[in-house]
Structures are given as structure tokens and as C-alpha cells.
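For reference, the entry.
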Amino acid sequence: MRSHSGFGAIGAKTSSQPKKIRDEDLGRLIQSSKLALLGQMAAGIAHEIRTPLAVLRLECEEILRKIDSLPDEYRLTCSGHRDTVVRNIDRLSSIVDQIHTMSAHSDMGFCRLNLHEVLMEVEKWARKLIDSEKVRLLIESGASDPVFFGNTTQVEQIFLNLIHNASEAILASNRGSYVCIRTFSKNGMIGIDVEDDGPGIEAEQISQIFDPFYTTKREDQGIGLGLSIVARVIKTHGGKIDVESKPGKGTSFHICLPHDRRQNGRETII
């Protein structure tokens, strides 16, 4: 006897077609597992690399002091080599920090923040990262309530990555002249637009720019973690990010963050 509910007499649901996992779903599951394993490995590697890098940086600072006492003809030559070493150590440290951020799952260090105060600090750091003579950095603070719950270092990383990427694209293409961060209030949330008038992004690249290790840069210019870290940090803060871009007409990243993702005094873990 068949039940009208679609269940047989013993209560088991009948089906003429076996349930199948679609190829794309299976591929997504496998990729997710690979990224989880990679995150665990990366966290351990980043921890091991940090200490020797810190030692190298301290040794370079000691060399700096000794170079200053050399005669002019030697000091100038050594200074060039010194700057190259320091620059590459700092680049390695930056990559390690990005890998650590990418693999981290902790919400430690979260507190109430004022977005406009965070952006003031970001502006100070960004001035050292970009060529201010060729790329203008504009910040328009319009959000009526810029207070939210977050991690200062991680939020700074969001904007420094976006500013750095935009600046590099403008300089490499010789197209564009500014990066603008604009804040506003939207539907009870904090809205942030980060826009530039640079070369834009090709349509076929838009869907991939937040993927880990995806990059259009040369191998010696980046490893493709910047935007994936941006997306991950925003998600950890309970927010969302979207992008609009057309080749030759610049790029706009649209971000929204909740004012406070704690509920009844407790954090909402993403």
C-alpha cells in the first residue's frame, strides 16, 4: 500500500532516481578540503619562518649602523645593497603575515572600533606604500555611525591591500590618478566604497579575483593572496564585499560591515 506522503508502509521514502552529487559540487567539496589542509600547513610554515626573518631584520639594522661609519665611496655602494636586502626581507615578512592571516580562524583581538579612526591610521601607512606624486589617496568619511566590532590589524589589512593593488595597477598601466575610500550609512550598516580610475579588470577575471593564489601579476610581484585575504577578513567581521569594474573605466569595491556582530554580549562566530 502506497502512502500519499510518498513514504511506503515501513516509513522509507521511495525514489525512482538515486540521489547524485553533481560534478561541480564534488569539485567544490574537494577544493574546500584542499584549502583547509593548505591553511593548516601554511600556519605552521608561517610560524617557523617568522623567527629567522626577525633575526635577519635585526642583523640588517646593526649593519646599517656600521655602514654609516664607512668612507663615502664604500658607504654609497653598500647602502644600495643594504636597501635591496631590507626591502626583500620586508617583502618576505609581508607574505608570511598574509599567509598567517589567511590561515587564522581566531577572533582574538576584536573590540569596538571607529572606522574613521582606523582609516586615519591606514592613510598614514598608505602614504608610505604608494607614490603620492602619481597616485592621490582620498578619504571621504560620511558614515553617520562608524562604530563597529572588529580587529584593528585585520581591518587595516583590508584597506592597505585594496589601496596597494589599485596604486600598482595605476602605475603599471599609466592610466588613472587616484584611489578614493568613501564611507556612508546604508540599511543600518556601514558602507565603504574603495574606487579608483585605473585600468579596470577584465570581465573574465572578475569571478576569480577573490580566489586564493589567483593573480595577474608577474611571479616576482605577488602570490595572489591579497584579495582572498580581504574577502576572508570581511566575512569574519560579518560583512560582504562586491566589485564592479570595466576595462579602462576603473574599479569599485563595495563593502558593508555590521555595526556590532555581537548578540546579547556574545560574538557571532562566522
Q: What stands out?
A: The chain has two domains: 23-103, 110-267. The two ends are 47 Å apart (CA to CA).
